[in-house]
Every structure is written in C-alpha cells, then in structure tokens.
What we know:
Number of helices of chain A: 5
CATH superfamily of the largest domain in chain A: Urate Oxidase
Largest sheet of chain A: 7 strands, antiparallel
Radius of gyration of chain A: 23 Å
Distance between the termini of chain A: 76 Å
Oligomer: homotetramer
Number of strands of chain A: 12
Structural class of chain A: alpha+beta
Shape of chain A: elongated
CATH topology of the largest domain in chain A: Urate Oxidase
CATH class of the largest domain in chain A: Alpha Beta
Helix content of chain A: 10-25%
Strand content of chain A: 35-45%
Amino acid sequence: MALGANSWGKSEVRVSKIHHGAGTDDFSDVTVQVRLEGDVAAAHTDGDNRGVLPTDTMRNTVYGLAQEHLTKDLEGFASRLCERFLTASGVTKATVSLWERSWARETATGFVGGGSERRVATVTRGSEDSTGSGIEGLVLLKTTGSAFSGFPRDAFTVLADAEDRLLATSVTAGWVYSSLPSDTAATWSKVRRALIDDFFARSSASVQHQGYMMGEAALAAVPEIEEITLHLPNQHHLPFDVSRFGVEWAGNVFHPVSQPYGDIRLVVTRD
Amino acid sequence: MALGANSWGKSEVRVSKIHHGAGTDDFSDVTVQVRLEGDVAAAHTDGDNRGVLPTDTMRNTVYGLAQEHLTKDLEGFASRLCERFLTASGVTKATVSLWERSWARETATGFVGGGSERRVATVTRGSEDSTGSGIEGLVLLKTTGSAFSGFPRDAFTVLADAEDRLLATSVTAGWVYSSLPSDTAATWSKVRRALIDDFFARSSASVQHQGYMMGEAALAAVPEIEEITLHLPNQHHLPFDVSRFGVEWAGNVFHPVSQPYGDIRLVVTRD
Amino acid sequence: MALGANSWGKSEVRVSKIHHGAGTDDFSDVTVQVRLEGDVAAAHTDGDNRGVLPTDTMRNTVYGLAQEHLTKDLEGFASRLCERFLTASGVTKATVSLWERSWARETATGFVGGGSERRVATVTRGSEDSTGSGIEGLVLLKTTGSAFSGFPRDAFTVLADAEDRLLATSVTAGWVYSSLPSDTAATWSKVRRALIDDFFARSSASVQHQGYMMGEAALAAVPEIEEITLHLPNQHHLPFDVSRFGVEWAGNVFHPVSQPYGDIRLVVTRD
Amino acid sequence: MALGANSWGKSEVRVSKIHHGAGTDDFSDVTVQVRLEGDVAAAHTDGDNRGVLPTDTMRNTVYGLAQEHLTKDLEGFASRLCERFLTASGVTKATVSLWERSWARETATGFVGGGSERRVATVTRGSEDSTGSGIEGLVLLKTTGSAFSGFPRDAFTVLADAEDRLLATSVTAGWVYSSLPSDTAATWSKVRRALIDDFFARSSASVQHQGYMMGEAALAAVPEIEEITLHLPNQHHLPFDVSRFGVEWAGNVFHPVSQPYGDIRLVVTRD
C-alpha cells in the first residue's frame, strides 16, 4: 500500500474584526479555510508528526495575523497567510479561502446583518380572537455603546467586566394588537424602525437593558400595541487573546461563536 | 385514558405570488402555518375522520385563496384563511401564521433575495500560484424576461413550453485573476454589478442562455479575468394549478420548491 | 467570448420505494443527482434548446424507472439511468449519483430512521418544581397498517381516500413525572419502547388515531406519568403518478416531501 | 412603561463526558439549556447588574459540575444544576433542559454516532465509464487509542502534546471499482466494516496515521478497489479547563466544538 494525494488544514475558522476609524468603524466577518500540502508521508505511514503543522496552529495564525493584516483586501490577507504557512518546514503548497458575510451600515458604528429577516403575522379566530405581528432574524451589531459589568461573581465566574464591548443579537419581536391599525404593513415597519434606531442610539449596561429600551421605543412609536415580547440571543464575539503569541491585543479581533449563546427574553408593557 | 388538548394543521406551506402592476411587479414570498382545534375527539379515540379537515385541504386552501387575497396585508390574508377554516364543520378555533421573506427591489420586475450572500477569496501559493475570487448565495429573481421552450420531448417529458416565466437562481460565480487588479474589493463589486445588471436587462431562453450572457457581461466589465465559472441552480417556482378548485389561474400564484432543483453549470471564456 | 466546460442536471431528487415481499417489506430511501454533458453550446450562445433534455424530464425518468429498476443495487440503478440519458440526442456523458439513508428494520413492515433521536430532560426548581422527560427525533415508518379516509370534503379537497398507506413520522414526546421513578433512564427506555411497539402493532385510521393509541400505550407502561404530549409531524411520502408515462403504478414508488407537512399534536391523559 | 415576564439563560452549552470504567468506558454527549427567573427588574430598567448571574457563569457551572455530577441520570444532573443556580442571590426559578445524543457502543471504548450515515453510489457512462461507491457521515469516536505529539512548534503553537486523547471523526470514504464486484451492496458493507474495525483496533499517532491505516484495511478487505479516498474532519472534543474553578480536571469533561475543525484528506493506493 502507498500514500496518494493528501492535504491537511483547518476549516470554518471564524474571525471578526473592527476596523476602528475616526468616529466611524468598519467591520469584517470572515470564515477562513486553510489547506496545506507538503512532505508528510511519514506522518501517514509511520506516525511521525515532525512535519505536521497542527491545525490548531493554523487557526491561531489566522487570529494572530488578523489584527495587523485583515482588511477589505481579502485576497491580500489570504496571500499573507499563505506566505506564513509556506515558512513551515516541508510545506510545499498552501491554499487559503475566505468567505465574507456582508453587513449593511446603519450608523457610524452600527450594522444590520443580512438576510434571514422575516416579517411574521399570526391571526387567531374562533374561540379566541387576536391579531399579532412580529419580526424574526433581524440581526443588529454595534462596535461600541454596550457594557456589561457589576454582575455578581461566584466560583465559576471568570468573565471580566466590560465597560464598552461589541454587541450583536438576532432580534425576535412579537406583539398582539389591542386595536388593529388600518395599515399593518406600515405599522410593522414603524416597530422595526423604532427597534433598530433605539438599538443604535442608546448605550446599554446589558442585553436586558438594551432590550427594555428597545421595547419602550416600540411602544412609544405605535399606540396600538400594549406590550411587546423580545427575544435577544447574544451573538457572542469573544475577544481573541493574541497576547499568547507575544502580540498586544488591539481590541479589534474577535472569535464569533454560535454555540453557546446568552438567551435573553423579556416583555415590555405599557405599564 | 382520555384525550387532552389537541390540534391539527399544516406547516411550512410555501407560496409565492407576483402582484402584477402596470410595468412594475411586486412580489410576495410567504410560508404559512395553519393550526385548527375542534370537535375531533372521535378521530383520536375511534378513528372517525368525519370532522378532520385534511391537512392537504388546508394547503390547497392557502393556494386557492392566495390568488385573490394574498397582498402585503399579511394579517388580512391570515384572517381570511381563518374565516374559511372556521366554516368547516366542528372547527372551533383557527390560527394562521405567515412568515414573509424580504426581497429587495432591483428593477421594475427584478428582485435580489436577502442575506446568504458571501464574497469569496481563494489564494494558492507554493507549487502553484493563483488568486481567485467569487460570489456565493447571490439570489436573483425576475417575474418576466425568461423562457424555456423548444426542448426535446420523450416519454417522461410532461413539462409545458414556457414563453415567459418567473426565473430565480442563487448565483455562485468564481474566477481566477490572470493579472491581479490593484483593488480586488472594487473589482469584485464590478463583477457582481455586471452579473446582476445583465440578469435583469436581458431576456433568456433558458438558464444556460441567461448564464452565458451573464458570463459575457462579467468578462466585458473586468479585463483581468480570462474566464468565469457559474453555478446557477434553478430555484423553481411552480405554477400552482388552482383550476382544480374551479378557479382560473391568473398566472401569479406559485409553489416554490427547494427539492429537487435544476442544476446548471458553465464556464465562459474570453475565447 | 466562448463557452467553456458546462453541464446540466437535476439535484436532490428524492425517491422512496417499498420492495414488497411475502409478509416482509424492504424499503429504500434515496436522493438522486443527475448530471449530463453534451452538444449544447447553441443553448448557451443562441438560446436553442433542441438539445437540452429538461431537468424536469430527468426527475421524471428517475421516478419512471424506479418502479422497475430501483433495488439495493444502487450502482445498477444508476447505471440504468445513465444508459437512458445517453439515448437522448447529443448527450455524450451522464453521471448519476445516489445517496441512500439507512432505516433499521424493527418489524416485517416497520423501520426506525436513523440518527436525529435525542433523549430530553427538563427540570424546574424554585417557584415551580417539576421533572419532565422526553424524546425528540424518533423517526418511525411503516409500509402498511395505516389509513386515512372518511374525512370531510370541500371545494379545495382533492386528496383520495387511502385504506392502506405508508406512514412515517418524527415523534416528539414529552411528559412530566407525577412521582419521580428511581431510574429515569430505564423509565425513559420503557416509554420509548411502548411508543415504538404500539406504532408498529396497531393499525390506525389517521395520525391522530395512531398517536392516541401510542399515548395510551405509554401511560399503560409507566405508572409515574399522568399524561403525555405528542407531536407527530406527518413525513409525507406521496405516491408518484407514473401512469402519466404510460406505466401502471405498482403502489411502491413515492416522492418524500419535507415541505409542507401535516402537523398533528395531542395530549393523552390518564382520564 | 413597565417590565413584564422575563428570563435569562444560556442555550446550546455542549458538554461531553467519558465515564471511565474498568476496561470499559461509557460516553455522554449532552446539550444543556439554562433558564433563570428572579429579581432582575433593575437590570432592565436601570442597567443595574448586581442580580444578573452572567450567562457565561451558567456555562462554566455546567462544565464545573459535570465532572462530578453528569451521569446517565440526566434529570439528576439537571436538578443538581437547578439547585446551584437557586443559590444565586435573587434567583427565584431555574429551569435546566438537557438533550442527549445517542452513540451506539461498538467496542469497550468505541462508539458509532447516530444517524447521518449515507451509502453513496456514483456512476458515469458515455465519454467516461466508471462505477464508484462511498460512505458519508459515518461518525466514529473512541475514548482512548489516539495520540498527537511531536509536531513542529512556532510562535502560534499553544497545543499541548497528547499521548492519549479522545478521537472523533465523521468519515467520508469514496472509491472507484477497477473491476465491478457481483454484489455491490455486500462489498460496500465489507469496506464499511473494515474502516470501523480498524479505527477501533489500532492506535494512531494522528488523524493522518489513523486514516492511512483505515485505507490499508479497506484495500486489504476488497480486491476490486485500487485506491480509496478518505476525508476525516476532526470532531474536536476540547478538554475543558475546570482547574480555573479550583477543581482538578479528571480527564473526562470536554467541550465539543463544531467550528473550526481539522480537515484531513488523503488517498491510499494499492501502491
């Protein structure tokens, strides 16, 4: 038996980065795949790993170099990564692919995430009679204007206080009309706009705090609603500790994680 | 033993509709859930189905009423459906929920679907040296300007000729640079814009024909590309035959299906 | 500009088939992909479709030939399809891929679908005190022993009465313990076994009827439960009408659809 | 405005655990959801977080207590977690839900994961003639018999050498027949069995090493195959560092992560 074509790499490395500007931030949300080829036959046939750059190292390299090199020139960053991987002994070919999600700018430091948004309508008739509407999948992100500190600490608490952090959430909002507006589509847009504007306009001390203010704003905007239910899963973007690699963290490179997530639910009522 | 709370319904009924206008079409893409409660204890305990409106009938009702009643007033359509279901013998409560996806208008009859779009970059260095870019998940839909007719027929062919049909596809495009442009992000935008503009500007005789023209447009727009690879899965919106219900089909109600799909792939070269 | 490599095909064609035997049925659940190459340059450059076998015809061919040719010899069926597609004028290469899901035999005509099954536990303490358990994703299918007939008919009803049909569902079951059993894992297995055994042992007149009997069986098996909640989405396998192609339907070829689905929910109580 | 019903929690906390036994290990793979209610109105209305147990702490608590308390008595572990969360000041209600995936025992320390497995067949005819088969989604896990050490280290390498680690992968295997066997279904089962048996029988120094041996075993079992292609994504189960909480890690609690993953590909030929 003999070894044929082979490669090794790391797939689905997610990295996000704030490009801090003067008053205006830009934002990148990229998924990276690294694929290497080289002189690693002995690793396969004899278990000799001396030529096998660990895939964990590939991942770390992505974060380690992102702080300095990740810009909107994706091809440039990919090229920079390839060059780095080619310095590893025995590596003869490196392929790096990046997939960038788009975020639509809403404010100088705020973005709306693309695509999964849905308008929802729920109507019940018969033994019960109600007309409700809602939003699902409205993804909002701001690079500043959010804090979380002053929380209780116990033996399992390692989270640091954050006075200013990146906040992202996928808003689910729902409400039942106490009196049906004449134009439900326009009313829906009014609620959506109130939620978005408030999210970006007001700084918050927690997701709970942010959500409560958003609920207030929605109720203020639309008199036909008595209460609004909000579900605000926290789409965590964890600061990636590049100091392990002898680089000072510049406050701009993050690891977005989809599991687990903080799961915040609340109802805001007119009183 | 005894029966407790129960309900029956139909979930994930997908319906799309063209709102034909004078020169300008609007478009709705809705997923419907129907849930009924009523006097159906005997169905559970004795297998007596006389009170069980079939879930297939619920589905048909959605399509049957969509032609006349589905507008941007989702709550109105849901209410209309509830009322219809309450006319069924023994039904005491009907709940209808709708989820509407958003499509961004691009032209009078053209729309860009939200959200899954990605910019892709793939760079290889070492024993091979190439820089490539691409687009994934660019969803385009036009209500007119697409045909498919004149194809060969055999014993298994039942498809009717269509001289003007709705066309939707999720574009994947990829290319390798023969000479690297100075601004890859701007170049990417130029390719994307050429693909979108051409899709909406030119009528096609097939997905293949549409794709070939899009490829031509991309190559014309960007001299640094020698060839472009296109993958254009056909997101079928099947005309829903409402004539079975004694209603003449108005050419505007469709059943979007995700499985199976026509799978069109091609490369367009500079010659 | 010129046309480079190209192909067309149909992806994700789902077909299921009962292999009727003497007292024992076997079952196949296959997803098919067809990919053709041939002399279709004119379709791309001139919109001339005379050589373009429609992807809808490819789909129909899969169902049309499945009745006679789909066996556990997947490669043989794929080969048969390739040969058929090569008879189309101008087709020079045909590739057919099949993916078969596995179903574990449970009885002579009953199968358990693989894999997504989960054991669930939900415990609440504090202002409320409850211990509940459940099952998610238990997929059951039987080729016989299920009917649906005698239901009400209206203008939108086209469904035919079925005195014996294929029935498949993904069971979600949940219950709260009125008194906590000493071994919750063993008790969970007892409920699971009761649900499965009853599904396969008893014929039903509807999903509602099947579910009620399953609930009875679970309550009979486990005295610590007062009631059980069941969610039984109908995983429709639609008989595929091959008679359109001049072939008599043998009652064994189906089109499994994931959207929409009949959505049946009920609670069975101890009295 | 006023605050209505509210809760906070952590969803999709994934934890796996080896239950080490005398010669025989058992394995748990659980997803946890925590949901709390309590006196946190001030957090919503005033941004006062003194009562808000961080969701990150909830996550840590799951791992911190799993080492001692997670057994097959899921309800018992959920109850233990609830009690812990109720000790936090102001928390009045805790709900913990667990979802357990099932793994089928294959050896004393080896398991096959459920469900996504597919048998694949790919046949090409016309200008090319080939018959190939394959497996997708065969998930294998062993609690011992796998190492990864002796790899090169650079500035971005923080991975520790592991002389004995948990190894899990979702096997994709594909091969083309050089001579078609008379019974392709039986031959497929022979390849599958060879891959599984070898994975559990032989210790490996890396995924590459494991894969090469599996390929050798498949070729040895089936003479009609000249080479086999393997794709072995590493389903990482990261040791969770409970020492941060003053607990010594017992080598049995892991954090399974789906993103990113090591992506190992190879071909093994007859020579």
